[in-house]
Amino acid sequence: MDFTGARFSGGRVEFGSAVFSGGIVEFGTARFDGGIVGFSDATFSGGSLGFTGAVFSGGSMTFEVTAGPAPVGLLAAVGTPVPSEVRLRTDWLPPGS
Which of 67, 69, 88, 95 has its CA 20 to 30 A from that of 38? Predict the structure, then answer.
């Protein structure tokens, strides 16, 4: 699936309980500037889930209750300090966050 360049600016999109175990799901250069995007209870166990170049400028996004490693490019796209509207698992947070 390819969400490259998509704009999430309102409403609610839930990927909760999704299992990303193969294939490619790309959010590169997507803009998250409103609404709610949730990945609660999602599992990242293989394939490729990428956020390289994504922009987080508003709304709410949660990765707090997930399994597996951080998606490619997510932490760089979120930046430091992590914006309050982006909730990450504590083991993904950069040191000192």
Answer: 95
Q: What is the pTM of this model?
A: 0.84
Question: How far apart, in whole angstroms, are the C-alpha atoms of residue 22 and residue 53?
Answer: 22
Question: 87 and 63 in contact (C-beta within 8 Å)?
Answer: yes
59-62 contacts, C-beta under 8 A, 24 or more apart? 59/8, 59/9, 59/10, 59/32, 59/33, 59/34, 59/35, 59/85, 60/35, 60/36, 60/85, 60/86, 60/87, 61/32, 61/36, 61/37, 61/85, 61/86, 61/87, 62/37, 62/38, 62/86, 62/87
